[in-house]
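REVIEWER CHECKLIST
Item 1: Sequence provided? yes
Item 2: Single chain? yes
Item 3: Sequence as submitted:
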Amino acid sequence: MHTTKVQCPAFITDPIKRAVPERSQTFIDTISQLNAPEEDVHFAMERLADIFAAEQLYESAGLCHDYLSRTNEAILKYTKTNQHLLVGLVMLREEQYQQAAEIFVHHGHHTHAAIAYERANNFSEAYAAWLHESRRYQHEGQLLQQYQAQLAAAMSAHQTTYHQEAPQLYEATIYALTQWAAEQEHQMNYQAARYAYRAIIYAARRFSDRSRLLLGHLNTIRLLRLSHQRFNTLRQYDDCITDLQNVGAHFEQAEILGEAVAFARQHQFEFDTYFEYQAGLGWERVAATLEEQEGQHSLLEHVLTRAAQSYEYAGAFMKAQSLYQRLLTLPELSAVAKDNVERRQLFLSNEFEDPRHLKQTTKRPAFLNEQRQAHGLQTELLNHTNGYDFETLTKSFVGAHGTIWDIDRRLAFMVSLRAQSAPLQADEQCRLLQLFTNFQGGPLRRHILRILAKPDIKYRDLLLDVASSPAQVDGLDFAHEMIEVFILWLEHPNTDIQSVAKMAFQKLQRSDALSALRHLYEVTDRVEIQQLILQTAAQIGSAPAAQFLLDVYSEGLPETSENAIQLLEQHAGERMLAPLRKYIDRHFRHDHRQRVEGILQKLRHKRRG
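Item 4: Structure as written out by the authors:
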């Protein structure tokens, strides 16, 4: 069977060959064939490790050992060239947390050290490392408060030592973050305000502080709704519900579930029944708590009724019947309430609960587990500390077994060797990106994309090639990554780069890009970018694209609503029929139905003609 060779480009291999011993050339050639059999690559790596060590090229030898998972040898070689951050990262990967933390501290990588100490459950030392970093960034506003949130959380986990200091620092941190969030809101910088509220949520989780959890979540939800981020709003509701359950705040959880139901219905989402079913479970938990208390019969009646109504809406008629039966056993149930309950029981006795329907309507929607907005406060702080150093990041991927594909680890290995011989120029990084779009790519590709986010204009044509390259694997992730970069290019002060981004958007007429476009539409506040996204969606011309445009039209916002329906009128095709018909059946506004009916009439005439 013939297999096409995936060759590492010459601009990577040639400088390496000029910088390494001649007897290593054959092995470099083997590894540069990125899809070569693993046994061949393993043998070549072993030989290269010996050659590099003999030539005192210890960092290169360390990379070979790192690829082969020879942890001790990699650490030894990295230590000889003072690559202490790499030594710590290898130890961290091997779960040698305490040793990694000590290496990080000794060489000034305090954010890395704090995280490693926490993983080692050494919260006393974690506190010291977070304290060091919070003092370092004491004049950097939000960053300082994020470090303080970490600091307070570490103190809360080590209460035996910091039983007096932790609460005071926690209170001061919450106050500072709240003030910072209010200031950012006043300046309409909603994203920064959301980061501050997330830091509040992080610290409140460690202190099991239900009131501050609600403070952080409800303000984040409010800001997401203000920015029209509907899917992210539901994800935030879901996170809030989980946190409240973890701290035993069952009543608050049930109330928030009710809000999530109302929000889902308002925006005509079909998974409101999932939240309704969860609300039934939530009110049952509240009822269980009340039954343990004396004199709560009147409140118990209200709670059981709420639970039964939620189950009814979700189609869980048997559960609702069971709760109505419990209501009839309450000693203080009024005659009117008893009559209402019996009438509901009679109604439900004539309803048939379809188990298949129930399974679908109450199933957890997959989107709740996707596209989380933040990768975690600690990751954000690490990224800031590292400064997104390209060479260090690339080297850290060489030994990342099970995290990224072997073909990417080999490319990272070759790039790391090349970086030792001569620094990678911006145009070479662009060409690397083109190579990565043919593979899984993963974290390294995403990092290169961030590097290219503010490119030099002299690489205009190359950037356009990168923008239009189809991803062979994992297209959806590729689309998300590229669209985020295109937006940064659109915001570039250079008009030529803006034109590249606009041309790139025109090439995104792929169905796998629609999810990314929709997500971006929800998170951007710039009307001109929203208009460009709507235009691209209309040109995709699929049923989901039509649904997206109809959703925007239904929102009725003056900046985008009219543009969405005009684009539908211009680009409507056969593949858009189903959502257009469904819209007419379900939507309540007469003028909206008339407009969509006009599009359907146009399609019918086109079909007849």
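Item 5: Key structural point noted by reviewer: Residues 370-377, 470-477 have pLDDT under 50 and may be disordered.
Item 6: Recommendation: ____
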